[in-house]
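Hi team,

Below is the intake form for 4-aminobutyrate aminotransferase from Halotalea alkalilenta. Please confirm the fields before the structure is written into the shared record.

FORM ID: S-0412
PROTEIN: 4-aminobutyrate aminotransferase
ORGANISM: Halotalea alkalilenta
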Amino acid sequence: VELPPEEQAMIERRRRLLGPAYRLMYQHPVHIVRGDGVWLYDQSGKAYMDVYNNVASVGHCHPRVARAIADQVQVLATNTRYLHDTILGYAERLLATFPDALGHLMFTCTGSEANDLALRAAKAYTGGQGIIVTECAYHGITQAIAEISPSLGPNVDLGAHVRTVPAPDLYRSRNGEVADQLRRDVEAALADLKRHGIKPAAFICDGVFSSDGVFTEPAGFLAGAVEAVRAAGALYIADEVQSGFGRTGSHLWGFQRHGLVPDIVTLGKPMGNGYPVAGVVVKPSIIAEFGSSARYFNTFGGNTVATTAAMAVLEVIQDEALMDNALKVGAYLADGLRELMSEYQVIGDVRHAGLFFGVEIVGDRQSKRPDASLTAKLVDGLRERQVLISATGPRANVLKIRPPLVFTRDNADFFIAQLRAVLAAQPGA
Ligand code: PMP
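The structure came back. Fields below:
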């Protein structure tokens, strides 16, 4: 696409200043200056519907969260080495949403750091090193976590202690089930670690398998795999960076859909609605070993402004009944997408939990041939219609839809209308 000269200049400036590792979304990148609820605005005031950003989960620039941050930063902005009420009040309030066994909360700034800390704790507790992840998992950016994030691609080496298992993909499953298959795959990974003399430390997975392609059904499918992991003396780490804080509608936490109590839970993205705050929730017995042999100080993690932001987010989720909204509007949007599926053969599958969707785009329904090129056209076509979305999965053919939890039925109608128009413009769709 031919870009206006000022946008082209900005892209070049970015490249010159930020270097080669950053990526922009869309063939025609979006230059935004403001956010409000489910909308992002460019300089001319043009509105873009954000159906993708899982960070601004209670809505962009939510006034209550923004005010709480602004008020706190004028009063006190410092670290966890002092007594302060907010960190304790927040810990009490957050831990009350978890099963009783998960009794401690530790703070980090990013999901990557949370997963890094979770691995350190799991390794200290089990004495093992082996980690099992799904084939296209993403857990973050540190050296240790990049080594367990196969979605970063073949140029980033997985650690020698890492084993991957196929994601629980019901749509492409050969025998029409995923629970027993995942259990068998995890058992095979454990056996392979053993063969190599590597003691297992943990199985870590995203509650909705977002980078693997979004796999949500049937709820409960994780139980057998986790049983196998525990039987081998390893831990189950629930990465709730994507699936946490009410997005799945039925529960605050993704692992609850599976009827499980994880050993460690990691949190991030929506926790501060854009303010960097993340954390680890853990069984006291599991962190005991790590805590007695190592001290933990994270300069910005759990600072007074971060915990204030997190408190405001949790209050908004509860006071505005956003989980209930995710459940209801999620079901409504699912109906709309399934109606589209009856009109367009290229939609192979619609799956979701609450307001987290994966929509599989295929060449034809019989072969289920993934169509990454059409998926990219849909993503860019929607951007031209001012709807911001992206794609995921190992074959880049799954539309990933995660609007802010304040998404309304009207918003869903608007989104479906735009997607229908983009599909109608594709030859052969
Ligand atoms: N885990 C999952 C499942 C994620 O999606 C991400 C971020 N995309 C992370 C961890 C890492 O979080 P952060 O970018 O805050 O380090």
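SUMMARY LINE: The chain is about 35% helix and 15% strand.

Thanks, M.
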